Amino acid sequence: MVDREKVSALVKEAKSERLEERDVLINTLHKVQDYFGNYIPIEAAEVVAEELGVPKSKVYEVLTFYTMFSTKPRGKYVIRVCVNLPCHVTGGREIVQTLQETLGVKFGETTKDGLFTLETTSCLGLCGVAPVIMINDQYYGDLTPKKLIELINSLRNGGDTK
Amino acid sequence: MKPMVVLVSVDSNSVLLGARHFVNYLKELTERFSLQDTVDILETGTMGVYTQGVVMAVFPDDVYYSVRSVDDVEKIVTEHLLKGRPVLSLEIPKDKLKLTVEREKVTAETRIVLRNVGSIDPKNIDEYIARNGYFALHKVLFEMKPQEVLNCVKASGLRGRGGAGFPTGLKWEFTAKVQADQKYVICNADEGEPGTFKDRLIMEGDPHSVIESMIICGYAVGATKGYIYIRGEYYGSVENIQKAIKDAYEYGLLGKNIMGSGFSFDLTVRLGAGAYICGEETALLESIEGKAGRPRLKPPYPPTNGLFSKPTVINNVETFANVPPIILNGPEWFKSFGTAGSSGTKVFSLVGNVVRRGIVEVPMGTTVRDLIYRFGGGLVGGKELYMVQTGGTAGTFIGVDKLDAPLDYDSFKNHGVSIGSGVILAMSEGTCPVDVALNTMQFFEHESCGKCTPCREGTRLAVQILEKISKGQGKLEDLETLKQIAYVTQEASLCGLGQSINVPLLSILENFKEDFIQHIGSISCPHGVCKFVKVQKPKMKV
């Protein structure tokens, strides 16, 4: 069950940062998603819609338009890989291949053990240390297939993302 | 002030090379050796270069180190800080240092945007003020009328640094002229053009320069509210900008009655959520209004009908960062840099296969060759350059024959080389133009918002055809079809995203025509990149 009061409090917090009546929906959704980990349950989105006075359909549209939001639970670690040219030509092709082979999933899928969700991202602005990936809110740069496999293995063995 | 200072470049890129970890270890060691009263450890923004590890500078000795491990940190502490002997093995080598000095010579007089980045602590408002920060705001509020500010920015010839190059002063004047009960100033910090990371490093390294400029803009156009729209993934930028806004409020530089002038201005941060299209200004407005970021039909344009249908100025981070020095030094000073039609400097992001990846600020009119070889240090492994993408994904692909084109807002018209957002993506031999074209079109296909048909379908078709060619199944007439798609999508699309796909697509088809032809009717990719797949012939039914 979704804690409606908690969501309500998050909406109030976001509201305190507004300059205009309708300018906080996306910031609010960020706060709600951070609270739930890496997705926004539909019930929580309904609370947001009610509290902000926005139609549910509009909130749903926003949730599904932006790639950082998800309405479904994702893996414990959401891996986002930059697939743009600056990473692509500095070894990113191999990184994408290694990830798909090591995890055994394609983009948009979650591993069976529920640990990893693999996603693509556009340029993260870390091209000084390309190729780059993100795992949850942590960045990793200057990657090689070897470093990547070590990283994945350490997460599988209960290491953290720091 | 302590006798010695160690300045460490801590930014989103260097953190991934261990910068944060090294700072902590440095602090731990200085305490262990009781050096805490002798040595100050300060964090600053980017020093521009990345491939040499984390840059640390020791003052007053003026020694620059490249640090790759905690052992390196230990050496610097035990040898240099404790015994006064510079660690030669970690020093940025003399020939490279010479290049760095030469670099500074070229850029020292032209550090306008990056004037404080890599020198001050971005989280300390006093350091910004100590370097003439908020002096321009004071001058504007107490010595200049709004029209005088507009005249000054117009006369400077400053043009939008996001890529389009629209004259900034003119944009401000359009907004100033409209009568309205509310106007807005917005900073477009939704940096998403692949290869561009200058805005990120400006916000991380000198956040107050953006804030000061937005208040000045507010005063000039009569706006009292502002938003900085930052990419959701840019945690470091969000953190530093939010801290800077908080401090500016505490110092009375934001909020009601700024510096006792009677002028009031409120500023806040809004986050993106992973949509490249939100860098398009009207899509960005939709996003702040809490909607899906789909571009609006233009006209009307934002200066008359912007956020919540009110007159709105939207400028890029780098554009804003130029304004305070222009106000303080005058438009003539600014025009003394750069070329006739493009005054000032440009911050370029050097990426791809160059030795020294990073950002560099040089006068407008600098050539691609200088950027790659002089500032970028040539190509990794001494390889030959094969192709360069300039200006970002919506920019041009050029071969080595166009390296001497000077980059400014007219270089696309004059030389077919676009400046865009300032990306210089160098690709060495072994890069396949078909693979590069496919990657580029996949990007557009993914980022197309789907609102208008030409862009949605055009990018999808281009990807299908390029996939076919990269599998060795292309036909010569496919190249003509690609060109047709480029023309139609450019002509018929609603916003800048679709309207700009012709630039990369046509430039790569023209400048690398031979590479495409070599993929057609041959048995393998000439560069050994694309994997050819044989077409399975349908089996005959017996």
Give an account of the 3D structure.
The complex is a heterodimer of chains A (162) and B (542). Chain A has helices spanning 4-15, 25-36, 42-52, 56-65, 85-103, 145-156; strands at residues 77-82, 116-121, 133-135, 138-140. With 162 residues, chain A is of the alpha+beta class. In chain A, helix 5 (85-103) packs across helix 6. Chain A starts with a helix and ends in a 6-residue tail after the last helix. Chain B has 542 residues and is an alpha/beta fold. Chain B is built from 22 helices and 13 strands. In chain B, strands 10-9-13-11-12 form a 5-stranded mixed beta sheet. Classes of the chains: A alpha+beta (162), B alpha/beta (542). At the A-B interface, helix 2, helix 4 and helix 5 of A face helix 1, strand 7, strand 9, strand 13 and helix 17 of B.
Secondary structure elements and pairings:
The complex is a heterodimer of chains A (162) and B (542).
Chain A: H1 4-15, H2 25-36, H3 42-52, H4 56-65, E1 77-82, H5 85-103, E2 116-121, E3 133-135, E4 138-140, H6 145-156
Parallel strand pairs in A: 1-2
Antiparallel strand pairs in A: 1-3, 3-4
Helix pairs in contact in A: 1-2, 1-3, 2-3, 3-4, 5-6
Chain B: E1 4-9, H1 12-15, H2 19-32, E2 39-44, E3 54-59, E4 63-67, H3 70-83, H4 94-108, H5 125-130, H6 135-143, H7 146-156, H8 168-177, E5 184-189, H9 198-205, H10 207-221, E6 225-230, H11 235-250, E7 266-271, H12 281-288, E8 312-316, H13 317-329, H14 331-335, E9 345-352, E10 358-363, H15 368-375, E11 385-390, E12 396-398, H16 411-415, E13 423-428, H17 433-447, H18 453-470, H19 476-492, H20 496-499, H21 502-511, H22 513-519
